[in-house]
């Protein structure tokens, strides 16, 4: 049976950020921590060794695979900062057009630094993602 590596844990978010090599990335991580915390109202939790997540939801796919994941999150990686939002929501694409300098994969949006993006659009992406996932995966 497949076991998820990215699980919520009790590791310290602050300790994780303090261990980010780049002072600029560390500064951006603290800024994102404030933005995500204020916008979601959820406390920051570590998910796996390197993702800072906010809130959580339980998903179950038609294949039977299920698990828990953060509603939104971010990770200050060595090269770029990864932002985690809901996939499958059509509003995400429209918001990303106004977001600023970024690239995106299937699940992540990548930025170099917070100064490259529109923070108000970031807040809209966070809110949209939380709303979308709560509607799609309601708690029972």
Please give the structural blueprint.
Elements: E1 8-9, H1 13-18, H2 23-40, E2 44-47, E3 51-54, E4 57-60, E5 66-69, E6 72-76, E7 81-84, H3 90-97, E8 103-104, E9 108-111, H4 119-136
Antiparallel strand pairs: 1-2, 2-3, 3-6, 4-5, 6-7, 7-9, 8-9
Question: Which keywords apply here?
Answer:
9 strands; Aspartate Aminotransferase, domain 1; 140 residues; alpha+beta
Structural features, described:
There is one protein chain. The two termini are 25 Å apart. The longest helix has 18 residues. The chain has a seven-stranded antiparallel sheet. It has 140 residues and is an alpha+beta fold. 36% of the residues lie in helices and 24% in strands. The protein has a single domain, classed as Aspartate Aminotransferase, domain 1 (Alpha-Beta Complex), CATH 3.90.1150. The model has no long low-confidence stretch (mean pLDDT 92). Helix 2 crosses helix 4.
* CATH class categorisation: Alpha Beta
> What is the CATH topology descriptor?
Aspartate Aminotransferase, domain 1
Instruction: Give a count of the beta strands, DSSP E runs of length 2 or more.
Output: 9
| CATH architecture group name | Alpha-Beta Complex
The major β-sheet equals: 7 strands, antiparallel
